[in-house]
Amino acid sequence: MTAPLVRLALGIVETAVPVAAAPLWLGWIGQCRAWLLNRRGPGVLQPYRDLRKLFLKAPLVPEGAGVLFRINPALQWTLGVLALGLIPFCSAVPLLAQDSDVIVLTGILATARFVSVLAAGDLGTAFGGLGVRRTLLVGSLAEPALLLALMTAALAAGTTSLAGIARTFTVHPLVLDPSLAFAAAAFALVLVAENARLPVDNPATHLELTMIHEALVLEYAGADLALLEWAGAIKLLVFALLGLVLFAPWTLPGEATGPLAVLRAFLLSGGLIAASGALLAIVETASAKLRLFRVPAFLTTAFLVATLGLLVRLVSGI
Amino acid sequence: MTSIALLVATFWLVLGVLALLQPHSMRLARTVHVPGAVAGLVLALASVDSTLHSLPAVIVHLPGPAGFELLFRAGPLACVFLALLGVAVFAISIFARGYFRPGEGTPPGVLSFAYHLFLASLTVVLLAHDALTFMASWELMTLGSYALVLSEHNREDIRRAALIYLVMAQVSALLLLIAFGILSHGGAILDFTAMRSDPPGALGTSLVFLCALGGFGAKAGLLPAHVWLPEAHPAAPSPVSALMSGVMLEVALYGLMRFVVILRPELVPWWGAAILALGTASGLYGALYATAQSDVKRLLAYSSIENIGLIATAFGLALLFASAQEMTLAAFAFTACLYLCLNHTAGKSLLFLATGSVLHATGERNLGQLGGLLPRMPWVGIPALVGAAALAGVPPLGGFVAEWMLLQSWLTTPRFFATPLDLLLPLAAAIFVLTAALAAYVMIKFYAVAFLGRPRESRLLSAHDAGPSERMGLVSLALAALALGLLPGAVAGFLSSAVARLFGPLPPGATAAPGVAVFMPSRVTYAPLPLVLGAGVLLALFILGRRLRATRRTATRAALWSCGEGPVGPRAQDTSAGFGEPIRRVFAFVFAVEEQFPRPADPYPHYRIRLRDRFEVLLYAPLPALVGRLSALAARLQRGRLAVYLAITFVTLALILIGLRWT
To answer: Is residue B361, in this structure, part of any structural domain at all?
Structure first.
């Protein structure tokens, strides 16, 4: 009786902690970028201050906004939390492990995109339309690449369940597998594209000619915008945690149980996520934004690398 | 079950004849649709009812013309398609009752007769158990749908579209006749059971397979015979398009499945590989072309090509697994295949019907002239959103379940053949996931341009919502699509006896819980209900929180951002051509595009773009020229000189004599 309850409580905590910490990671990335640019930076807590400011603003809704537009922020946040609930973190057993696997995870991300573009199309503005078609271009090329990278890992592990993949990889380390290297490369490219980071999209831009993700959320204000920003931070963390499970499984406790193993896993993965944030900041500082016409080439590369990974996996055998 | 289905088919025929008694009476033609719809529901319930369809199927013998016997049998696979037909007919007939208006081409009674003839022949195609019944009902099906496509026959373009359809259907029927000719040993055996026990040799079997693939593929819309779809669907009235796309294409694939069952003993890997390759190619091609279309029904027609491609992909995969003796994987892949069929029927029929309602409300079929219809037509817009999501393959709807199951079986693929097939499988997987992502693009384009945003034309402001019977048709299909998404275990259970018949049983635990899909060898599960519930609870909390806040502060309405200029009109929205433009650029090599740019100093600048089907340009357009050249060659013989004719007669006679001597 107690064991399932403890598991449930642990699962909820395991989901709640990343949800709460997602803006912190965004702040860390921003701080690293500031340091690299020889600025002092606003501190790692800046996203929280931004969120607080936005939450306190008076609610403002554009004219002609329908249900889809109004429900979108809450739905984005909810889907982000659901996705986090699927990923094993400290105890290696995610909250929703019974109901899903990597394919469902990509399905949830696809649903989030489906809703967000429909919401942007709801108003019928020129910028919204641009945002929709650009997001769809990025998404419809990045999603297959992501799915193929995940399929490669799933083939290597022999299961598509994330907890199962994590368990297999901690028991039989496959770190030097060539197919996983391809998958990791494709995954990194997709992470950049799907989260609207440089060089695909500039998260700080409001220049109409180049923005992709910003064009979708241009009409949001106040609490709605805060939820969307938070959901964006959660999505970035979802990708980071997914990367940890697939390509750095030694951070997970594996077969070990008990508070010490959980603490070790928490510290290790936290440290690794901080390091990857710093790496992302370096990449973003070092690269310029791609011209929109060059973005398909970037994404096609990701797709082909992912396909190559799958081919290598199937040809090289288990 | 067989007799119930036969009774329903006869009932439909009687209804059609009834409507024909007073061909110009709109009221009669409308009235007969109601009992027709009820009969569809009866058919669906009977074929879903497990006690009926698990009985050993009986072969019903009826005396036919010229001493032939007509055989009918509703096997487990036919039951799946009968259920699909029944549900679709229920929704479409109810919808059609409110849809047809007087004064459009063919008199309503004749139209109603053709419609019910089409329904009856679809049923009989599914029931046929001998070659004669099959071919006769197949041709009746073609004739019925041809008459329906031609319903506005006073228009030139519609006559042309119907002609293309008829030619394609006849080529398909010809190929099927050849296949049956070989299978029946020159007409000696017509019974399918006897054909199974007495297959032709290896070469004959392969020939039969190729003819069947060509014949059924042409009718189903696989490459390269897909060109009739984007012509015939816009020409036909919307309920007819819904029936043709949502049911007839699937029935053609059912025919292919039946043939493979008959040819079973000689199951060879390259058949599965051929279907897989053709399916993935059709899927990607259809999805790419659909993104670039501006006519709503052409877009949906190309989307149908894509869906049929995906279904064929799943079937090919199942055959490949079966030829490698991986029967469990084959069973799962085939479950996914049938699941895709059901989902396509629910989703695509729904979208075609919604298009019909939009057409009536606005008189507009051009996507670029629509917009902002959701608040004006919620009874059409909300079901259409469900249909679009189902076809886009996003959870928690049916398309996702099928893709999930198919990818699972793909991911368990061991190395089978140690041949180039090992390379085909991952490449096909890559194309499959790309196609699935592009399908979402297409559906978002369809929905966002037509239903969201602001009306692009002022007359859309007065668009009225659909009438009560149209609403009922749309809502029932939307409910079917939702059920397919939320109850994967129950649907898999319904499909299991058909799957068992072709590829052996699913593992026992796979269909245990109605709300859970289970994939067996790796025991991975997908349960949509807890996910939906979790999301629902979180969302409800949000809405509650917003209500509480709203008592303190109400939301202010603000103008849209316009860069500091005045208000921007609805014409500034993205056009339908613009929406598909990124894909057209990235995959430019696939399209045959003619663009006309305005000259810089043009006072009335016009930008024109004409998109043509590559296959039409490369394959079908040169065909008439080729025929013309051949006949010109033949005409050379006709010089009007007696000596030439005598010489030809002499040579022919000599050749015949030599031929007779040698045999």
So the answer is: yes
Touching A: B residues 355-414, CB under 8 Å: 371-372, 374-375, 389, 392-395, 400, 403-404, 407-408, 410-411, 413-414
Looking at this predicted complex, what is its ipTM?
Answer: 0.92
User: Is B354 within a domain?
Assistant: yes
Using the beta-carbon criterion (under 8 Å), do B392 and A98 form an inter-chain contact?
no
Which tokens go with B135?
Answer: 């071919």
Give the count of domains, chain B: 3
In this structure, are B588 and B538 located in the same domain? Answer: no
pLDDT score for B419: 66
Best CA proximity match to A70, nearest among A221, A180, A277, A176 = A221
Burial A82-113 (b: 16+ CB within 10 A, else e): bbbbbbbbbbbbbbbbebbbbbbbbbbbbbbb
Q: Do B452 and A59 touch (CB under 8 A)?
A: no
Q: What's the rounded Cα separation, in Å, for the pair B244 and B300?
A: 12
Which domain covers residue B537, as residue numbers?
268-543
Tell the burial category of B597 from Cβ atoms under 10 Å away from its Cβ (0-12, 13-18, 19+).
exposed
| Residues B347 and B366 occupy one common structural domain | yes
Say if B538 falls within a structural domain.
Answer: yes
Average pLDDT, chain A: 84
Q: What is the pLDDT of residues A179-232, one digit of tens each?
A: 888 889 999 999 988 888 878 887 777 777 778 888 888 888 888 899 999 999
Question: Taking the domains of chain A in order of start, what are their residue ranges?
Answer: 2-139+162-171+206-285
Asked if B463 and B356 sit in the same domain, the reply is yes
Name the phi and psi angles at B661, rounded to 5. Answer: -65, -35
Residues of A in contact with B400 (CB under 8 A): 107
Q: Is A208 on the interface with B (CB under 8 A)?
A: yes
Find the mean pLDDT for residues B162-185: 90
Average pLDDT, chain B: 85
Which tens digit of pLDDT belongs to each residue from B296-317?
A: 999 999 999 999 999 999 999 9
Give the domain-ending residue among B495, B524, B543. Answer: B543
Which 3-state string (H, E, C) describes B596-621? ECCCCCCCCCCCEEEEECHHHHHHHC
Tell whether B598 and B643 lie within a shared domain. Answer: no
B258: which 2 tokens? 């039946």
How wide is the angle at C-alpha B485 spanned by C-alphas A79 and B93, nearest 5°? Answer: 135
